[in-house]
Amino acid sequence: MPALNWSDIDTVLLDMDGTLLDLHYDNHFWLEHLPQRYAELHGVSRAMAELELQPLFEKNAGSLNWYCLDFWSAELNLPIRELKLETADLIALRPDADVFLAAVRDAGKRVVLITNAHRDSLSVKLERVALAPYFERLISSHDYGFPKEDAQFWNALQADINFDPARSLFIDDTLAILRSARAFGVAHLLAVRQPDSRKGPRDTQEFAALDDYRTLLEGLG
């Protein structure tokens, strides 16, 4: 990964799930816990639960609905926020993410969280991990009505916080979102090589990949 030229960066935009937080919590919830609880609460087999859930997941992937707890609660007739609390002990920071956040904040950079997570999901995580003090703003794409994959999200973000994309760093674990940011003109982009600590590293394709937050601190001061 090439060293960052921090003198060219004023604003640091950060994703949450898979970037600052270990994606294991979300993967476990949606792929293991939710199908099991769906089966129990609807009186079907686990295999049938997965058969019913999979086409719904595929249909909504990448849309705002995909990230919306209200949508899934209504669609599945389940209390999704309450179910997420059942596995909240799995919510965890990625190694040294807090060290990075503190250093960037102390260096005087603007630090803004931009997440596709629903506000209810965000609140569940902030109750477990003290992220809020590091950020100037905590922005959910639900505030704007568009996911980060959509160009309209970036227009809304620009109107909201008035940042210079040419002098901004954005870190995210989703390649489609990084491509959306690049199309908007965000100049400094990093993917995350291993967003889920229980799964292996991923191919981040055309994007430089973050392995260790401490490596980003060189030249920051």
TrEMBL record:
CDD domains linked to this entry: HAD_like (cd01427)
Enzyme class comes to hydrolase
User: What does the entry list under GO cellular component?
Assistant: cytosol
Q: Which SUPFAM superfamilies match?
A: HAD-like (SSF56784)
Q: Which domain of life is it from?
A: Bacteria
Provenance organism: Pseudomonas laurentiana
Note the NCBIfam families from the entry: HAD-SF-IA-v3, PRK14988.1
Would I find Hydrolase among this entry's keywords?
A: yes
- Which biological processes are named by the entry's GO terms? DNA repair
Q: What is its EC number?
A: 3.1.3.5
Q: What's this protein's name?
A: GMP/IMP nucleotidase
Q: Quote the InterPro entries the UniProt record gives.
A: HAD-like_hydrolase_sf, HAD-like_sf, HAD-SF_hydro_IA, HAD_sf
Q: Name one GO molecular function term.
A: phosphoglycolate phosphatase activity
Q: What keywords tag this UniProt record?
A: Hydrolase, Metal-binding
